[in-house]
TrEMBL record:
Pathways involved: Metabolic intermediate biosynthesis; acetyl-CoA biosynthesis; acetyl-CoA from acetate: step 1/2
Family per similarity comment: Belongs to the acetokinase family.
Binding site for Mg(2+): N16, E434
Keyword list, A-Z: ATP-binding, Kinase, Magnesium, Metal-binding, Nucleotide-binding, Transferase
Residue positions binding substrate: R112
Organism (species): Crucibulum laeve
Annotated binding of ATP, by residue: K23, H228, L229, G230, S231, G232
Active-site residues from the entry: D168 (proton donor/acceptor)
GO BP annotations listed: acetate metabolic process; acetyl-CoA biosynthetic process
Swiss-Prot/TrEMBL catalytic activity: acetate + ATP = acetyl phosphate + ADP
PROSITE patterns for this protein: ACETATE_KINASE_1, ACETATE_KINASE_2
Protein name (record): Probable acetate kinase
Site (Transition state stabilizer): H200, R261
Length: 452
């Protein structure tokens, strides 16, 4: 049955506005709410679409129906896609004209909103919540504005659809006060909300559940070190099933470097870099209604891999990093090697620190995100370095075969190395899915989904 004829199900669209991409999944879900204790998946995937390289044009558009029988798979470069709003418009046009799915059958749209401030739960988009998210845009300059532009388009072209915002920050509300606080005047910090919020929370929630299922352990018993490595990269430590710390902070700029982001720097560097650091910049290519300073613009959009190597693609960087060259001075001659080694170095900083925060009681180290899921070389480098902490030895064969089985979670360390069960710490790769996390939450949430 085509989605248009199926009246027994609602269509749910999940939209993930990342810094460099727009990832969209369409699901069908039962009209009434499922029992949250039910083991069966509450939603069924119908299709996925992705628009990548939005910040490094030409953008690449892909459209893949989930059905095996499907013949429509599209992969092409589109010059007309300039930002997240035009990317979404292109998707909707394609959905109707090429895939012949009536957009008015979509009843719910889940939007990933990176900065949710103190929101601890998803919210239905109303004038009030829209403006609240808008006020937080300066704290996620590459994200909130982009998500709002898609939300705006949905309100315009799909007026009878319910738009719901799901926040990256919500997962990290369990971070203890002393970890989330900065060592600054606490009165000012409180008044202005200057604290660590943390991001990639929808991805971490997905990984946490998927790994619990894979290890066949209760989610609340797990101690994990998670690495979400994509255009934006972060690390997170989960203790007893709750976020204990994460590397991003007040904004997604802190912590690990990314495609165009510097990651953590000495705060004083800003003033040595440019004496115009504090001026507000109005770059027309920036999402509307965002007031960021010159310094924020440089550190968010003109730094990271792009500034060191000229590309935002970590796959390209790896290819040219001469990883086989043992010469210790190679990084001074090869910017790709510099970027690779610098990234690995910062990742090790977090793994070491999070290992200590867990008193060494770690169930698994998990790689995820575009780089985490695809970079065989980075996983190899990190896995070799963590062996001294009691992690199982890497299996080169397993590492090289990641993604081939189609499983959501795969172990890349070697269980055979653990004959006596002494080295229980595993190294895993999780194919994370923020869209599925939102759709599932939406259908299982009593406040969002009809009971009868
Ligand atoms: N084969 C590869 N090896 C290493 N990195 C890759 C490979 N393919 C893609 N990537 C990286 O994955 C990034 C995208 O990650 P993703 O998590 O999908 O992005 P976003 O942060 O926009 O959600 C790309 O920018 C690229 O650097
Ligand atoms: C929070 C963040 O950096 O997200 P993304 O990696 O999707 O850009
Ligand atoms: Mg992402």
């Amino acid at each position: 049955m085509s989605p248009n004829e199926d009246q027994q199900h609602n269509l749910v669209l999940s939209v993930n506005a990342g810094s460099s991409s727009l990832k969209i999944s369409l699901y069908s879900a039962p009209l009434q709410q499922l029992d949250s204790s039910s083991k069966s998946e509450p939603v069924t995937l119908l299709l996925t679409s992705s628009i990548s390289s939005i910040s490094a044009p030409p953008a690449k558009f892909s459209f893949k129906p989930a059905s095996i029988k499907a013949t429509t798979t599209k992969d092409e470069s589109i010059d007309a896609i300039k930002d997240h709003a035009s990317a979404f418009a292109h998707f909707l046009h394609y959905l109707e004209k090429e895939a012949s799915i009536d957009k008015d059958r979509i009843k719910y749209i889940c939007h990933r909103v990176v900065h949710g401030g103190d929101y601890s739960e998803p919210v239905i988009i109303t004038q009030e919540t829209y403006h609240h998210i808008e006020k937080l845009s300066d704290l996620a300059p590459l994200h909130n504005g982009a998500a709002l532009s898609v939300i705006h388009a949905c309100i315009d072209v799909l007026p009878s659809t319910k738009s719901i915002a799901f926040f990256d920050t919500a997962f990290h509300r369990t971070i203890p006060l002393h970890v989330a606080s900065y060592a600054i005047d606490q009165k000012i910090a409180k008044e202005r909300g200057l604290k660590k919020y943390g991001f990639h929370g929808l991805s971490y929630a997905f990984i946490h559940r998927a790994v619990a299922q894979y290890l066949d352990k209760a989610p609340e018993s797990l101690n994990l070190i998670l690495l979400h490595l994509g255009s934006g990269a972060s690390a997170c430590v989960i203790k007893d099933g709750r976020s204990l710390d994460t590397s991003m902070g007040l904004t997604p700029l802190n912590g690990l470097p990314g495609a165009t982001r510097s990651g953590a720097i000495d705060p004083s560097l800003i003033f040595h870099y440019t004496n115009r650091a504090g001026r507000i910049t109005h770059d027309p290519s920036m999402a509307t209604n965002i007031g960021v300073t010159k310094a924020e613009d440089i550190l968010n959009r003109k730094s990271g891999w792009k500034s060191i190597t000229g590309t935002t693609d970590f796959g390209e960087i790896t290819k040219h990093a001469e990883l086989d060259n043992p010469d210790s001075s190679i990084a001074s001659k090869n910017p790709n090697r510099l970027a690779f080694d610098l990234f690995a170095d910062r990742i090790l900083n977090y793994i070491g620190s999070y290992y200590l925060k867990l008193h060494g009681n770690v169930d698994a180290l998990v790689f995820a995100g575009g780089i985490g899921e695809k970079s065989v070389e980075l996983r190899e480098m990190i896995s070799q370095r963590v062996e001294c902490l009691g992690f199982r030895k890497l299996s080169n064969e397993r590492n090289g075969n990641v993604g081939k089985s189609g499983d959501v979670v795969e172990e890349i360390s070697d269980p055979a190395e653990d004959e006596e069960g002494k080295k229980a710490k595993r190294i895993l790769v999780c194919s994370t899915d923020e869209q599925l996390e939102m759709a599932r939450e939406c259908v299982l949430d009593h406040k969002l989904w009809p009971k009868d």
